[in-house]
Amino acid sequence: MNIIDKALHIAEKTIYYTLSILLFLFVIYEILDLIHLFYVEVCDASILGNKSIALTGVPLFFNIIIALEILETFKGANENVLRKVKLILLIALTAISRKVIIMDVKHIEFKTELGISILILTICVGYFLLNDNVRRRITKQKE
Asked: Which residues contact 58 (CB under 8 A, 6 or more apart)?
């Protein structure tokens, strides 16, 4: 390894650690925010109230899940590429699911709904094809 490769490797590790620490702090902040929100909603709960914790709590919950999946991707920095791609597809699927759950479907056109459905289906098919069991069956069938 020459000196430029070593410098790039050190810079890459420094960036990974910095981003991991910031993401970890973000997760802690989001968890505290979710606990506070839940506490406030439970204390102010009323039967007649139309306000729902789902509109504010669910996005926080999904932010935490997405951040943890990104941390998992960082953690496996030296692992195989296939595992990273599968994690990235899971992160994308989680992010899209978050948007779909909080989306107001009354004001969305049919083309938008169709596009989101195709996007989700494509990511799911991609993840399915990358699955180890499916790859083994396909490889056995070719032999």
From this structure: 98, 101, 102
Rounded distance between C-alpha atoms, residue 16 and residue 7, angstroms: 14
C-alpha distances (whole Å) from 28 to each of 24, 32, 33, 53 are 6, 6, 9, 20
> Cα–Cα distance between 43 and 53 in angstroms, integer?
12
Number of residues that make up the chain: 143
Q: Are 134 and 128 in contact (CB under 8 A)?
A: yes
3-state DSSP percent of the chain in helix, strand and coil, to 5? 85, 0, 15
3-state secondary structure of 43: helix
Closest CA to 61 of 105, 97, 25: 97
Which is it for the CA torsion 117, 57, 75, 77, positive or negative? Answer: positive
* pTM across the whole model: 0.64
Q: What pLDDT, in 10s, does the model give residues 31-41?
A: 999 899 888 87
The rounded distance, in Å, linking the Cα atoms of 79 and 61 is: 28
